[in-house]
Amino acid sequence: MNKTRLYWICQIGGWSIWTFFNLGIKAITDGFDGKDLVGPVLVSIFSIYSTHIYRNFVVKRNWLRLKMPNLIPRVLFMIAALSLLNAFFVVLIYYFIDPLSSQGISFFAQFLFQFAAFSILYLFWNLIYFLYHYFENYSTTLKFEATINEIKLNKLKSQLNPHFIFNALNSIRALVDEDPKKSKIAITQLSNILRNSLMMDERRLIKFNEEMQIVKDYLDLESIRFEERLRTEFDIHPDSNNFEVPPLMIQTLVENGIKHGISNLVEGGLIKVNTYVDGAKLNIQIRNSGQYLNGVLMKHGGYGIENTRQRLKLLFGDDTSFSILNENEDFVLTDVVIPKIT
Q: For burial by CB atoms within 10 Å, which of 3, 66, 256, 267 has the most?
């Protein structure tokens, strides 16, 4: 519904309810007469007009953007001012239109009663008006942040795919002259990986088992190049498949371990991926032979690591964790904790 239309429905509807409430009280206590309509209707019209002017003043002064400590004193002042104005108007109306109803009651007592009543009414009016805009702005902010996060994620993914392809093609290029037969097998492996990655390109998260298939295809490709220098092990908890992970995340971390760990070792080494499930969280551990020395691995392999760190933060906020460290003298441990999306 259009906001302006909703505003006027609430304005007219709300003050009409107040008018009918007053008429009902009047009918119960003193009986109902046609002339009794005049006062409440005039008061209702005056209230609609005064609150509309107040609303325009709020919009013009940008009160909707003020923080609570600055907003509350202003609103309380306006509630008092509008209540004084309305109370004075109501007392005058009833003294001129129905003076008999005011007999025995002093002007000051009437005024205090009306001031108290309108203070409560204006308090509710302001609560409804400002809370509506607060939640609307909050919702808009959330949508804006979600859009920004989506843009950032897409940017990170768009960076990651060329990076992965570039490294894979470098691996194949090294085989072309050395072993053409193996290079053909490697190209087939790469096409399988690319086909799978393109199928999931539009998805923020994929099933864990889909990601692991990419990882295994990638390791098969690298095994052609490294031969016996690359050994792999997997210890996957059965419940891991109930979780979703960012596309190419595990593959990127495995690639990081090979490129900056195993490839620098004459004798090669081991890549081991194991997982365990702790309640609603999946813990992924990737071990690779080598050492993480004084941030050297981070410095040279920081692209994949930083990309992973940013994506995890954007997708899961504070519910995720990521670390990379030397587990012992032989292995680097990359540890990722991912919450279950429900």
A: 256
